[in-house]
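Narrative progress, year one. The postdoctoral researcher (J.K.) led the effort to move from monomer predictions toward full complexes, under supervision of the PI. The following entry was the first complex the group processed end to end, covering 460 residues in total.
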Amino acid sequence: MELPIAESLTALDRLVEAMLFEAPSALSTAVLARRAAQGLGRDVRPSDVEAAVERLRARLEGQGSALDVFDWAGGYRLATRADLAATLDASRETPVPASRKLSPSLLETLAVVAYRQPVTKPEVDFVRGVDSDYALRRLAELELVEETGRADSVGRPTLYATTAGFLDAFGLASLDALPPLREIESVLNDPAFNRERARLLALHEPPSDARPSEPSDPDA
Amino acid sequence: MDLLLFFVQRDELDIYDIPIAKLTDDFLEYTRHLTVVDLDAAGEFIYFAALLISIKVRTLLPRPDADDGEEPVDPRTELVERLLEYMRFKEAAALLREREMARAMHAARSVIALPVAAETAAGTDSTALHLSRLDLIRALRRVLTRLPEPVAHTVNRVRVSVAEALAALRSRLLGGEPRVSFQRFTAHAPRPFVVASLLGVLEWARRGYIRLAPAIGDDFLVEAAASALPDPSEVEPAAV
């Protein structure tokens, strides 16, 4: 009953699942297609891979599997579902340190690099107001940040950018998936700064459009 | 910037109307504590304090270009802009933290060490302590300010010469007080004065310038034996 075509699709399905299972990092559609073609000894189009991944997703979902395919770092990764996190953590013989988080200063530095990349160390220093030498070196060690070249400005300072590992570690499909940086106005809209808002806007802009919302707001 | 933001938020400062002088004081106070720990960081703090001071100076100086048609720019504008920019990235860091936490809910095969795993492996397992350098400085500051100052009294040595003590006694005796109670004479005086006075009195009594009379308790009275008392500076000075 099974046609050879269907058989080979199944072979692709299984190979894609196996490659995703084995891979320590995200695999892009292009990589999956190339490796599948090599493994199966025939042409595999990226769209075939995408279809296979979708079928795998549906299959895992249908089985109620602990695993799911995630779109991270410009590719696919097989990983456990979030609802398992608590029991999985509890099951570990050597518990993972309560918080496996980056320190605030590393995270802050990483944020500047992520949103401003490619960026030089002096630029990072300027935003943070402190020397970021250690933070950048540490982030590079953690393979979250890498040197991507040198700026054309005086002294040709090193340019830093985030890595694929960064996208993976933060569960981002691509840099476009970064949560948008709030606009200055939005920061000022914060209740904490409401009082100063009108006057501050007046500092930057003509006073005419500086305070449209304030007086009209009955709650203000 | 972190400390600056901390001060602004702690004191609920009007970000438009930052009291530069007070901020500078706060900065310098932290810097004093910091120099104990980390000279590099102290350098950054001093840089900021200097920046604040330069802003203060510019607010105080008359603006030479005030009447060339341009809107006078508040020197604090740059600081406000930097502060706001920094706040944006601090927020971005918080957003990344959320993503990080969400991602940590999913376990995937990892041959390359996860950032965290690497950090733990490197022996810098900070467990639950996720403190910025600023937090550490704050903590240090608390400790340092709470610690009682070592009890160290500066002892100023009071030098009183016998001549000075006698001069004082002489002016009392010649000033219409026929008898002077030694205790009253030396009451509330520093110890060296008491000693010098005693030496002086004994010397003068030996030479017959004054007479001593017993009084109640430990006291004794001093009265002039001659109508004129010698100038105490004649007595060879014996400083105590």
